[in-house]
Design a protein that fits this description.
- It is a single chain.
- By secondary structure, the chain is mostly helical.
- The chain has one domain.
- The chain has 11 helices and 2 strands, in the order ααααααααααββα.
- It has a two-stranded parallel sheet.
- The protein is globular.
């Protein structure tokens, strides 16, 4: 049933891409902000308590509802799983946004493209230059593919509805509590743990569906260290698979902090935006194919 659920959710999102902010996301955003206002006292353990209330309990509750529906009629449990998975993803809208950015850059409207990108990319807006906007957009799309696609699918395959919600709600909490200091320490730590496996699975998938040798060489040599290593592995593998060089300065503010330069080959340009989206969807198809083989093997 996992394969059918995944296919149904992906088809639903393809036909009707989820738009932010979706009603469930608006309600949950208000809830996590309420938790931060009433629980945050500047102590790490309070952030862990808020994470339990905002993530663990809703995820367990959704899994319990699915089990109850399954006891009544299995199609109800399946429909519930499709609904939850659909609202946990939402990557398709960003693939459309990437195409719009590429068209704007090719028209020469780099300022317009930079402003559009700043609306859904964290951090300062990129400089209004073709290369800077292209690099920033490619990196943003890849990171969003982890948080809105690969991470959700990975944990859904392993843990079902509980895993998908656990991952997605953890990401929302970190986004909403990013400026809360020590209160964010535990949610951020947990999200790094949850990102560890899906980031590496996605990076290896990029190598398989792209340039295998360059992807693995970039992974080994250019992923970087520290708490952002999962993101570094994802960016380095994708850049190598595409044959493009990322990194360098993208922000309009000076002085820009030094950044790693993953990948190899040509400098990033708008023509690579469609390529990175295609790379991501090829990797998703690879996951679906592997899941289908596992399903056939179990018959």
């Amino acid at each position: 049933m996992t394969l059918l659920t995944l296919l149904a959710a992906l088809l639903w999102e393809h036909l009707r891409p989820l738009r932010d902010p979706a009603p469930p996301g608006v309600l949950f955003g208000r809830y996590v902000e309420w938790l931060a206002r009433h629980i945050n006292a500047g102590v790490e353990k309070h952030g862990l308590l808020a994470w339990v209330a905002a993530v663990l309990l809703p995820a367990a509750g959704a899994a319990f509802v699915g089990a109850l529906l399954g006891d009544l009629l299995w199609p109800l449990e399946w429909a519930w799983a499709v609904l939850v998975l659909y609202f946990c993803m939402g990557f398709k809208q960003f693939s459309f946004a990437a195409a719009d950015l590429a068209r704007a850059i090719l028209r020469g409207d780099t300022q317009e493209a930079a402003e559009e990108l700043a609306a859904w990319r964290s951090g300062p807006p990129p400089a209004a230059e073709e290369g800077a906007v292209s690099r920033a957009a490619i990196e943003a799309i890849l990171l969003l593919s982890l948080s809105r696609l690969f991470g959700v699918l990975f944990w859904f395959i392993l843990l079902g509805v509980f895993g998908a919600l656990l991952y997605r709600l953890s990401g929302v909490c970190v986004e909403r509590w990013r400026e809360e200091g020590a209160f964010t320490a535990w949610p951020l730590r947990i999200l790094h743990w949850l990102d560890w496996l899906p980031a590496r699975a996605a990076a290896f998938s990029f190598a398989i569906v792209g340039n295998f040798q360059d992807a693995l060489e970039s992974w080994r040599a250019q992923a970087g260290d520290g708490r952002d290593r999962s993101a570094g592995i994802l960016l380095a593998s994708a850049a190598g698979a595409l044959g493009v060089c990322l990194g360098g300065s993208v922000d309009g503010e000076e002085p820009a902090p030094p950044r790693p330069e993953p990948g190899c080959g040509e400098a990033a340009g708008p023509e690579y935006l469609d390529g990175v989206v295609a790379l991501i969807w090829r990797a998703v198809l690879l996951w679906v194919a592997l899941l289908g083989l596992v399903w056939l093997g179990g018959l």
